[in-house]
Amino acid sequence: MAFNLRGRSLLTLRDFTPYEIDYLLKLSMDLKAEKRSGIFPRRLVNRSIALIFEKSSTRTRSAFAVAAADEGAHPEFLGINDIQLGKKESVKDTARVLGRMFDGIEFRGFKQETVDTLAKYSGVPVWNGLTDKYHPTQVLADLMTVMENFGSLKGLKMTYVGDGRNNMANSLMLGCAKMGMNYTIGAPENLWPEKELIDYAKDVAKETGSIIDFSANPKAAVKDADIIYTDVWVSMGEENKPGIQERIESLKPFQVNPELMAATGKGHTIFMHCLPAHHTNGIHDMEVVEEVFESKASKVFDEAENRLHTIKAVMVSSIVG
Ligand code: CP
Ligand code: NVA
C-alpha cells in the first residue's frame, strides 16, 4: 500500500499508523539499497532544512546532514547558542520565521512542547530529533535493524532494561505496540513510563496483538526476548538532578552482561542500544559490559547507520511525498 506523507510532521510515533510506519521502514530499506548501489536520484534539490540542536548529537545531526546532501538539499545547523530561540524570541515566532525559509525543520532539545509548537506554527514538516519524552527517528532505525535481523516484526519480543521512563523506553513502547511486537520493560517500578502513555500503548497493543509488560525482575523481564535493548541510565540534561546516584544504584541489577543475555533462553537474542553508550570492563556501574557490546549479538552500529536511511525516508516522504 502506498501512502502520501507529504506535509506530515514526525513529533511522536503516536501520530503514525502501523501502515505508515511499515511504509517508512520499507522506503528506508529501498533508500539504503539505492545508496549502496551508488544511485542518487536527488529528490530534494533546491530545498533547505533547518537543524536546531539544544542538546548535543553525533548520529542525529550527521544523519540529517548526510541525508540532505545525498538528496541535494541544503542543511543549515542552528545551534542553540547561535539563534535567538529561547532568548530573544519565542518558539512561535521562530517557527513562523523558519517556516518562511526552510522546507523542513529538525528539532532536538528538552521540551516536547517546543517541537509541537514548531510544528503548529511553521507550516512545514517538523521532525523530532529527540526530546525529554520521545525519540521517534531512533525507533524507526531500531525497527529497521530488527527487520534486517529477523525478516519481520510481528510477534517478536523486545525487552528494554534500564531507565524505563526515558525518551527511548517511551518511544520503543509505542513503536513495538504499533508494529505488533511484544515489549517488556525491566526496571524498578519507579522507573516505569507514566500511566497515560502505558494506557495508550496498551490500547494500541489490543489492536495489533502485542503484549506490553513490566517487571522489576531483570531475569524474568528478559525471558524469551529476541532483542535486549538498553540506553544510558542518565539522559542528557539530567546529570545534576537530585536522586541520580540512587537511580544508578537501583539500575545495577539491570546491566546487560552475558548472564542477562543467556537468561533469555534463546540462542539468537540480539543486543541493541541507541548510542552513545557507556560500556565497561567489569566496573558495575554502567548499562552494558564490553563483552556484550563488542559481541556478534550486538547490532549497535547497524542501528547507527540506519539512522541515515530512516531519516532520509522521513525527510523525502514529508517534503515531496
Ligand atoms: N542515538 C542518538 O540519537 O545519537 P546522537 O545523540 O549522537 O544523535
Ligand atoms: N536517553 C538518551 C538518548 C540519547 C540518544 C538521552 O536522552 O540522553
Descriptive notes:
The protein is α/β, with parallel strands linked by helices. The protein folds into two domains: 13-134 and 307-319, Rossmann fold (3-Layer(aba) Sandwich), CATH 3.40.50; 138-302, Rossmann fold (3-Layer(aba) Sandwich), CATH 3.40.50.1370. Helix content is 42%, strand content 14%. The chain contains twelve helices and eleven strands. The chain has helices at residues 18-36, 59-70, 91-101, 112-122, 136-150, 167-178, 195-208, 218-222, 244-251, 258-262, 290-293, 300-319, and strands at 48-53, 74-79, 104-108, 126-128, 157-161, 182-186, 212-215, 227-230, 270-273, 279-280, 288-289. Strands 7-6-5-8-9 form a five-stranded parallel sheet. Helix 4 (112-122) links the parallel strand 3 (104-108) and strand 4 (126-128). The longest helix has 20 residues, at 300-319. The two termini are 14 Å apart. Residues 130, 166-168, 231-232, 235-236, 274 line the site of norvaline.
